[in-house]
Amino acid sequence: MYKHILVPTDGSPLATKAIEAAITFAAEVGAKVTGYYAIEDMNMHHVGAHLTKDLLEEFERRGMEAAEQHVAAPAKAAKAAGVPYSWLISKVTQPYEGIVEAAKKSACDIIFMASHGHRGITGFIVGSVTQKVLSHSSIPVLVFR
């Protein structure tokens, strides 16, 4: 069945529940888990905003600290469940691209991710990272809600 599960997180409570569920699933099927966090490139979002280099560096430093906390936190639960756990962080233009690339780079055979379920006009305006992963991934995506 599945041997390597990628679990992206954005640090939200729903993503945290998805990681817990992925660890339980991995323990049942004998798989390992890789946690993933995409740091969006601040330079791309603030082109022309005249942010100083120091401010951009501070945003990046704080973003990396938060990312490390989010992906390192499940290690204890994974260890308790007997599930091998590693994590990966990358700086990306679009989170969905980072997720798809991380799955390829880590040789994962499934992506297990949360969906916040934005629908209607909110879903149209905000967009859905999960929907984009579903449409761009070449491996199965299990959506946790």
List the main descriptive attributes of the protein structure presented here.
single chain, 145 residues, Rossmann fold, 7 helices, alpha/beta
Task: Write the SSE topology.
Elements: E1 4-8, H1 13-29, E2 32-40, H2 42-45, H3 53-72, H4 75-81, E3 85-92, H5 95-105, E4 110-114, H6 120-126, H7 129-136, E5 141-144
Parallel strand pairs: 1-2, 1-4, 2-3, 4-5
Helix pairs in contact: 5-7
Structure description:
The chain is α/β, with parallel strands linked by helices. The protein has a single domain, classed as 3-Layer(aba) Sandwich (Rossmann fold), CATH 3.40.50. Helices cover 51% and strands 21% of the residues. It is built from 7 helices and 5 strands; from the N terminus they run βαβαααβαβααβ. Strands 3-2-1-4-5 form a 5-stranded parallel sheet, with helices on both faces. The protein starts with a strand and ends with a strand. The mean pLDDT is 89.
Oligomer: single chain
CATH level 3 topology: Rossmann fold
Rg (C-alpha, Å): 16 Å
Helix proportion range:
40-55%
Q: Which whole number gives the mean pLDDT?
A: 89
- Secondary structure tally, helices: 7
The CATH homologous superfamily name equals HUPs
Largest sheet: 5 strands, parallel
Tell me the name of the CATH class: Alpha Beta
In whole angstroms, the N-to-C terminal distance is 22 Å
Net shape: globular
Q: How many DSSP-defined strands? A: 5
Low-confidence stretches: none
Major beta sheet, strand line-up? 3-2-1-4-5
Q: How large a portion of the residues is in β-strands, by DSSP E?
A: 15-25%
Name the structural class.
alpha/beta
* SSE string, helices as H and strands as E: EHEHHHEHEHHE
* Total number of domains: 1
